[in-house]
Each structure stands twice: as C-alpha cells, then as structure tokens.
Amino acid sequence: MSQPKLGRNSSIRDRVEDTLSFHRNEVVSLFSRYVAQGKGILQPHSLIDELENITKGDQASKDLKDSPFYEIVKSSQEAIVSPPFVAIAVRPRPGVWEYVRVNVFELNVEQLSVSEYLRFKEELVDETRINDHYVLELDFEPFNATFPRPTRSSSIGNGVQFLNRHLSSIMFRNKDSLEPLLDFLRAHSYRGHALMLNDRIQSISKLQSVLAKAEDYLFKLAPDTRYSEFEYDLQAMGFEKGWGDNAQRVLQMMRLLSDNLQAPDPSTLETFLGRIPMVFNVVILSPHGYFGQANVLGLPDTGGQRSLLSPYLSSSQLFLILSLILIRVIYFGPPPSSIKGFNLQVVYILDQVRALENEMLQRIQQQGLDFTPKILIVTRLIPDAKGTTCNQRLERVTGTEHTHILRVPFRSETGVLRKWISRFDVWPYLETYAEDVASEIVAELQGSPDFIIGNYSDGNLVASLLAYKMGVTQCTIAHALEKTKYPDSDIYWKNFEDKYHFTCQFTADLIAMNNADFIITSTYQEIAGTKNTVGQYESHTAFTLPGLYRVVHGINVFDPKFNIVSPGADMSIYFPYSEKQNRLTALHGSIEKLLYDPEQTDEYIGTLKDRSKPIIFSMARLDRVKNMTGLVEMFGKSSELRKLVNLVVVAGYIDVSQSKDREEIAEIEKMHSLVKQYKLDGDFRWIAAQTNRARNGELYRYIADTKGAFVQPAFYEAFGLTVVESMTCGLPTFATCHGGPAEIIENGISGFHIDPYHPEQASELLINFFRQCKDDTSHWNKISDGGLKRIYERYTWKIYSERLMTLAGVYGFWKYVSKLERRETRRYLEMFYILKFRGLANSVPLAKDDATES
After folding, report:
1. Distance separating alpha carbons of residues 697 and 700, to the nearest angstrom
2. According to the model, what pLDDT value does residue 298 have?
3. Considering only CA atoms, which of 653, 776, 665, 770 is closest in space to residue 709?
4. What's the CA gap between 208 and 649, in Å, rounded?
5. What is residue 6's predicted lDDT score, i.e. its pLDDT?
6. Of 492, 507, 369, 488, nearest in space to 427 by CA
7. Do 735 and 622 have their domain in common?
C-alpha cells in the first residue's frame, strides 16, 4: 500500500547523499558506530554523542559540523538499527517528519514513507512478520486532504484564528457560501424557543434589508433601552431573542452581522460567532478516580482536597502538588504507592467550572435571555467511598449555584462495581457507562447538553461516544497523554500490557482526538514540543503497535482544531502585593515566624541574619526534577549572590524520617549536606512544605515587600502554576527555560528564563538583576509590572472561560456547516472503535469486589 510521506520528498535523502560525497570516511565511521551498538533503538543523545566524537578528529571531521548532515543528525528523534541498516526519523521542525534508511555496508540511502519506516521498526519485535503486507493501517489524512491547514510551526495551537481566516475568506469570495450562516441562524433554537431569526427572513438579501431597517430603528433608541421594550417590533421584522439585553448590545450584534455579510473578516466573524447564544448546558467528563471536594487527598487517581467549609480552600496549591507528581511520573516512571495515581485534573475542573459558570451567566444576561445554565461534572459513583462523598449521586460544587457533580457507577453483567479501580483498568466498563451517563444527563438537564468536554483518556472516549450519540460539540483536554510518559511503550507494548493496558489507552486517545471538534492545551509544547523535543500530541502522528495496527497518520499537529488556552491562578488568593486593602496582614506574624524565628524545628531550619536583604524565594516538591537542591547549591557557591540576597525555600520534609519517598529522602539528605558544606546558616532558610493556601498567597506578597524574587529552577516544568502565582502577586520571577514557563515568561520583560543545566549563568543573571535594582529602584517595579501585565493578558481563569465559550461558538458553527466531512471521519472512527477498540477493551479483566486492591 502506498502511503503519503511526511515532509518534503527526498530532501533529507539528498543531503545525506551529498554528505557521503564530501565526507565519506566520517559518515561511514559514524554509521559504523551506530551499527556497532547492535540491533535496537538509538535515542537522540546517543546519535549526537557519537556525532560529536567524530567531529573531534582531523579538519575534515571538524568540517562535518558545517554540513547540512550535522543538522540532520541533531534534528533526529530516533534511529532504528538492524545491521547493516540504520533508519533515522528526522524532525526538521515541530510537526514535520522525514525518514531515511542507510545501508552502511553498501553506502546507499533511500527515502522511506511513514509506513515503510514503521514496518522496518516492527522488525525489532518480530522479524517473522516482515513479509506481511496486509497490516491494519490507520490513516486519517485523506479526510483532511482537502481542508487547508497552516504550514508554519509557529501557527500550531492557534487553530481558531486560522479557521476564522478560512471561513471569512470563503464567505468573501463566494456570496453563496453565506447561505449556511443564514440557515444556521434560522435553525437556531433552545428548548423550543426560536433564537436569532424566524421564518420571516428567507434569503440573504432579505436579511440584509431587515438588518438595515433594524439598525435605523435601534439607532434612535437610548442605548440602555431594555430589550423587552422593543422585542415585538424586532420580531415583526424577523428577529428573535438572543441579540442582546438592551438597544446598544443588539445594535452592536446586528452591525457585526452586517459587516460579515458585506465584507467578512476573521476578527469580526469570531466576535459574532462567539456572541451567539449557543451554550446553556455543559457536561464535563472525568470518570476515573475519587472525584470529590473533601477527604480525597492521598487516595488513588484523585487530584484535590477541599474543605466544604470554604469553597476555595487548597485548589491551586493542590494543582501545584499534582503537577509536581505528574512530572515525576513522566521522568522517573510510576511513583511510590503513597502518591501513586495522582493527577491534576480534579483541581483543574473545579476551578474551571466556577469560572465557566460565571461566564455563562454573564453572557446569557447580556444576550437578553432568562435561561438558567447548568454544568454537570460527570464522574464515577464509588459505593465503597472510603469516607468521601464519592458514593453520593449528586453534589453541588461549592462556590457555584448551577454546577453539580453527577456520579454514575461502573457496572457489568454481574452488577455495580463497588470498589475503586485504577484508571488503567476502566476500559471494559466505559461503553456501558456512556449509555448510563447519557440517560442520567438527559434526566438532569431535561434534554441534551450543548457542549461536552472530556478529560484524560477515559473521559475523552466517553465524551466522544456521547457527542456522537447526541450530536453536540466536543472539546478534548488530555492533561497528560500516557504514551509520552513511558518510552517505547508503543513498539514494546506487550511488556506493558498486563499492568497498563496501553493498547486500549492509545486507541482511545486516537479515537477521541480525531472525533473532537476542538482540542485545548495549556502550552504549545503539549501539542508540538520544542525544537528538540517531540510534543505529546505530536507523538501520535505516526507509531506502531506490532501485531495490532500501524498508525501512519494519527493526528496532524497543524490541524486547526488545536488551541492553546492556559489556566490561571485563583485571584481571590493570589493578587498583587500592591493591593494593600486586600492584604492579609493578620498573617504577617505567622509568616515572620516562618522566616525569622531563630528556633530550629521540624518545620524550619536556618537563619536570616540580615533582614534588610531581599529574599530569593522558591516553593516546590522536593524531588530531583524540581531541582530545589540545585538552587541551594547555586546559591551556596556564589559569594556575590549571598552578599546581595537571602534564600528561602519551601519544600518537602526537613526530618528525613518523616518521608517514605526514596527520591525525596535522597534530596532531604542532600539539602542538609549542602547547608553544612557551604555554611549557609545566616543567609538561608529551609521551610517544610506548607498547606495553608491563604498564607502561601500572602507569603508571595511578603517576599515582594522585601523587593525579592521568585525562582523556579526545575529541570522541566509542564506548565508552571507557581510561576503564574508568583507573577500574579507581582513578584519578579526567574523560571526554567525547559517547559511551560518558557511560554509564560517573556524573557527580560515579564521575568527571566534560567537554564538549570547552567547554574553559573543563572547565578550571574540573579546577581545582575539585584545589582541593577540596587542602582535603580524602578527596575524591580518594571519587571514586577511586566509580569502582572503578562498575567492579565494571558493567564487568568476569566480569560480561559471567555476563550472556551468563544471556541464553543466558532467550532459549533463549523460543525454545522461541515456535516458531510465530519460524517465521513466519524464513520471511519466508528468502524475502528467497533472492530478494534471493543476487542481490546474486552480483553481487560473485569475487577472483582472481593479482590484485594493493589
């Protein structure tokens, strides 16, 4: 079967062949080194290390560094070695891949298609299938071949902007293409109530005519005239409710439509579609784990503990803790049993729905409607709830009026499953669960939802089944795709299957991401990685599960369904230090005790002798990836930095006997060693992890009062919630350049990037900053204000909810006007689900309530 190739045909092959002509000995030597490592997969660092060794030789070898071949190897993500062949996956830039294979013995180079490369890779596992030319191949590319996509890597994650340009361009070039917009507005209704237009308007020309008439009519009214005072006059023209609650808003909305009919442009189209009343009932899926608002911290597959006495207790702090655990899993495999199964989505969802409900209420009111919105968080009901509320069917979310947690149990032919089961074992329950959830949703909402949001692999699969069944707009939020956490878990899937059932999960992820109307992520890197690392979604572009199926085009990261919508910090807790009227001054006594109490306890050690010095502050989990000991060592080594500032870290336990985590124990011991080695007492304070969220917020501001700074020194950070928190409090922030913080901070404007792999450079950056602040007191304020400006522009839950509602409107309209294309894709997905996923899910053993939990 011939398959389309990723990237530009033959370009990589030509470059390799050219290099062979000019640097034959060096290239032969390099590939011979690769072959000498034996059959297997070589990772990027191995490829580059051998290349660097080669280029240390004579002048000809050094010249190889200036050749295109050098860049090819540096941009390679893996090499498959099966002597005498070496096949390389080259990624010239995010989202673009090419494949070549070199015969080291004969020195010939061939370009490979995706399918050919994956077939060669499969030989690592089973050479007997080399001649099997009838492997099931999954290819979604034909369904998107006629739809334009952006081509620049910088455009990835800005899908709605591209979609608006595409739609407005079509409407501008061909006035007949305006008909779907008219049909959409005429058909739009809610619970039997017509919205926007009625049957009096039958054509575009008629719509333009009555719009002009309505605009003249509205222009003569006072801007604040209530809609009820002119409702019947507009209805007689052909307009129904939904345009606005007063004359000014109705006029603005009608002018937007007139502009789109006359000369559509992307911005005007997005604004208009985003303001159409389309979302009144939202369903958010998060099936696995203990989803609750209290007493769930520490239980498997959960993400938050909240006190019902206070609707906002510990949300963002738990988000931080869970982010730390998530990154630990990514880099070091499954964590110890005491924290196993944590994830961040519970906290994310609870913060999300509060912001979303407020946004929905505001929009419905401004649209001139009197409907009551409803949000349902659908999760699993667990009869054996272990002291939580997870056995209650319905629970209102604190801090909201119209949002509830709806719990539906897992069941099979043997009845309802009573106990918790791991997220890796839920697959055989989900189809029945989706059917049960559909009935429960309809009963609660008295109809179908308008918008469905899935979370994680299981929630996204159930959301796909429900969206398909109910015909509603679907949004996917992965949080974390397991495939990227476990290296080679696709090619060697059999090694993971008994414990993790990754074949089900990877299949579910493919179905959900292709069924979704749009996908949101917190960062660009989640979609397409960086120049040197592959994104989580990008890793699903092409891969193989030998013996099951081969994915030649699983997802395209250039697809306009991808949108970056970042969460924020809770601004009732995290707000600027300059807002004196809101400051929690009553907590200053306990904060000063934390920072300056000379007594050494299990909660804090070390002293700060010179209280006039600014404080460098950091707060994170105490593990290797978070690199807190690296920050302390950097500080200890720099006598100049120690003259300028004090260092305070909040992390982990101080008493090593209190920790049961081997990695944390090692970091605790290292921290104590560093304190002694660099004689840090007098300049350094180590405070144990703090759980008082309100005090933590005020602690950021107290550090800002000292004209200090926040430092986030992690080797990698997926998003960077503490970075957002510190910037929201007005504290100048220095954060790792590896991961999400590199996107949050504009280097030198709203904060600074530091490279934890080069601590001397990071130390010098801090020294220069505090020296400059000493010479020019306005410099600190400049960076502080820049950080706040960045937060207000991009990283608040208000911005998040506004953007999410706008996306729901734009993609809801696109779903309406592109029914045929989506139908073709969904029929393909339906076949894949029935013929492949069902069998995989049914192979997962059903849990037994009398079995011992792991």
Report:
1. 5
2. 52
3. 770
4. 64
5. 42
6. 507
7. yes
Q: Is residue 185 part of a domain?
A: no
Question: pLDDT of 222-235, one tens digit each?
Answer: 999 999 999 999 99
Radius of gyration of the chain, Cα coordinates, nearest whole angstrom: 29
Q: For the stretch 633-645, what's the b/e string if a residue is b when 16 or more beta carbons lie within 10 angstroms of its beta carbon? A: bbbbebeebbebb
pLDDT for the residue numbered 270: 95
Burial 694-709 (b: 16+ CB within 10 A, else e): bbbbbbbbbbbebbbb
> Same domain, yes or no, for 255 and 305?
no
Scan for tokens 């070898």, then name that residue.
61
Question: If you search the block for the tokens 């030998």, which residue do you land on?
Answer: 546
Among 311, 289, 520, which residue's Cα sits nearest to residue 421?
289
**Percentage with pLDDT > 90 across the chain:** 75
618 and 744, same domain (yes or no) = yes
Give the Cα separation of 723 and 731 in Å (integer): 9
- Both tokens of 366, joined, read 């401004």
Q: What is the pLDDT of residue 547?
A: 93
Looking at residue 828, what is its pLDDT?
95
Long-range contacts of residues 356-360, Cβ cutoff 8 Å, at least 24 apart: 356/282, 356/801, 356/804, 356/805, 357/400, 357/401, 357/402, 357/403, 358/801, 359/798, 359/801, 359/802, 359/804, 359/805, 360/279, 360/280, 360/282, 360/805
154-180 residue pLDDT tens: 899 999 999 999 889 888 888 788 999
Contact in structure between 189 and 195 (CB atoms under 8 Å): yes
What pLDDT does residue 644 have? Answer: 97
Rounded CA separation 543/488 (Å): 10
Q: Contact, 283 vs 443, CB < 8 A?
A: no
Q: How far is CA 445 from CA 283, 726, 825, 851, in A?
A: 10, 40, 29, 37
Same domain membership, residue 482 and residue 628: no
| CATH number of the domain to which 289 belongs | 3.40.50.2000
Global pTM?
Answer: 0.86
Residue at 549 is within a domain: no
Pure H helices in 75-113: none
Cα distance between residue 550 and residue 594, in whole Å: 57
Query: In total, how many domains does the chain have?
Result: 4
pLDDT lower than 50: segments of the chain: 1-9, 303-343, 851-854
pLDDT at 528: 95
Helix axis angle, 345-366 to 315-332, nearest 10°:
130
Nearest to 795 by CA among 698, 724, 741: 724
Domain that holds residue 356: 281-527+557-568+803-842
CA-based nearest residue to 582, from 573, 590, 591: 573
What's the one-letter identity of residue 509? D
Distance between CA 112 and CA 488 in Å, rounded? 21
φ, ψ dihedrals at 661, nearest 5°: -95, 120
